[in-house]
Design goal:
Elements (H helix, E strand, L loop, with lengths): L3 E4 L5 H12 L3 E6 L12 E6 L7 H13 L5 E3 L4 H7 L1 H4 L10 H8 L1 H11 L6 E4 L2 H7 L4 E5 L8 E4 L2 H13 L7 E5 L3 E11 L2 E13 L5 E7 L2 H14 L3 E10 L6 E6 L6 H5 L4 H9 L15 E3 L1 H10 L4 H13 L8 E2 L11 H13 L4 H5 L10 H8 L6
Parallel strand pairs: 1-2, 1-4, 2-3, 14-15
Antiparallel strand pairs: 5-8, 6-7, 6-8, 9-10, 9-12, 10-11, 11-14, 12-13
């Protein structure tokens, strides 16, 4: 049944992919975002765009804007595709009765959203993770580090707030940056560096019951911690770990994790958690409609568990591929060759399908792809600055997190 869905933001790659799944499924899609040029704006599936206040700078104004839209009564489901879920979990009681929304308790959301909280859950459940120390001061940090190490702030998205340190010079630089962002006395993680490949898994839960699962490995990197090429994998061991986490948190909604597959050990090590679906087109193209499942859960339905997704399905994100090549300092000639291979489906893209800008089904998605290609060909060194546009006003900041945690918003 076609539903009227309000998507919480349009700037992230996850939102852009969710819009495609919703549109191909025949749903009515509207998007709100502080940027009039967000990725979600360039889709034939978006019936209406709403320019909203920035969550990062004014979560109260953003919430008031959402509530005004919901008061019209024209939406069936509110779909959080990024960190807006943190706000919605905090004010779930205020939203109840106005729209269908799948959200865990705020305490559970906070635990999964913060790297320190997630690490503590893993320790409690006895699930594997790299050797980890949680510190709250510079002196504790320096005492805990054993080179090489990974240092992480508890809150961070798309590889923000992560330092790989191999020596004292790298540690000093990380400490300076941590002090600059006022990371202390908050939780900071110090983890053992483990060589291996990173994979990701995503899932949908209904009151602690796992209903859908999909995992993939990265074949080629883009920028900002994202993958340019992916391949679906079968990971029953990871599924079982996610099942334990979701049951412990009585999770309701979408939950994704990152994990390492060590070179010398077949046991996956869990390293990060995202309380949302991350780029769900990989699952869709592998036969697992996690977005549709999330809509069912949001509306209070009791769907059956989805079958396992197909293994070995390769997908790619053309924009990430071009940004990744430019960020690694490659030449214009290399960028042009990659554009040709993408257009022809050659090389690593043979047999692969586009996730984020599927021009063959959504012609408007060609606009951001073409703009990205032209900008990079004109100035390849702009790749990292261009990618940072995805870390914008639609995301949380430390100050906005403090505002959302205050008592005033819950009433």
């Amino acid at each position: 049944m076609p539903l009227r869905v309000l998507v919480s933001e349009g700037s992230s790659t996850s939102s852009r992919e969710a819009i495609t799944v919703l549109g191909l499924s025949g749903h009515h899609v509207e998007v709100c975002d502080p940027s009039p040029w967000c990725l979600g704006r360039f889709s034939r599936f978006v019936r209406k765009f709403h320019r909203c206040p920035p969550l990062r700078d004014d979560p109260e104004a953003y919430l008031a804007f959402i509530e005004t839209l919901l008061a019209s009564g024209r939406f069936d489901v509110l779909l959080p595709t990024h960190e807006q879920g943190f706000l919605f979990a905090r004010v779930e009681a205020r939203l109840a009765g106005k729209v269908a929304l799948a959200s865990p308790s705020f305490d559970s959301y906070r635990m999964a959203h913060g790297k320190a909280g997630f690490s503590r859950v893993l320790s409690e459940l006895g699930l594997p993770q790299p050797a980890t120390a949680i510190v709250t001061s510079e002196s504790e940090l320096r005492a805990a580090v054993r080179f090489p190490a990974v240092i992480k702030t508890s809150i961070g998205t798309a590889s923000r707030g992560i330092w790989f340190v191999r020596d004292m010079r790298g540690l000093d630089e990380a400490v300076r940056e941590l002090v600059a962002v006022d990371a202390f006395p908050g939780d900071v993680l110090v983890q053992e560096f483990v060589a291996g490949s990173t994979e990701k898994a995503q899932s949908v839960f209904r009151r602690g019951e796992l209903l859908g699962f999909h995992a993939y490995r990265g074949i080629a990197l883009g920028v900002g911690g994202g993958e340019a090429i992916k391949e679906s994998v079968d990971r029953p061991q990871v599924r079982a770990m996610l099942e334990k986490i979701g049951r412990r948190l009585t999770w309701h909604g979408a939950l994704s994790i990152d994990y390492l597959v060590p070179e010398q050990n077949p046991t996956p090590l869990l390293i990060d958690c995202n309380p949302r679906l991350v780029e769900p087109m990989s699952a869709w193209l592998a036969g697992t409609d996690l977005v549709g499942l999330l809509l069912d859960v949001s509306r209070g339905a009791k769907p059956a568990q989805l079958p396992a997704s197909r293994e070995g399905v390769r997908t790619h994100l053309a924009m990430q591929a071009l940004l990744g090549i430019a960020a690694r300092g490659r030449s214009r000639h290399t960028l042009l060759r990659e554009c040709w291979r993408l257009a022809r489906g050659q090389g690593p893209y043979a047999g692969s399908r586009e996730e984020m800008t599927p021009v063959h089904t959504d012609w408007m998605s060609a606009v951001p792809l073409a703009i990205t290609a032209m900008l990079l060909l004109a100035r390849p060194q702009a790749a990292n600055a261009f990618a940072r546009g995805g870390f914008g006003a639609h995301l949380l900041s430390r100050e906005s997190i403090r505002k959302i945690e205050s008592d005033s918003l819950s009433s």
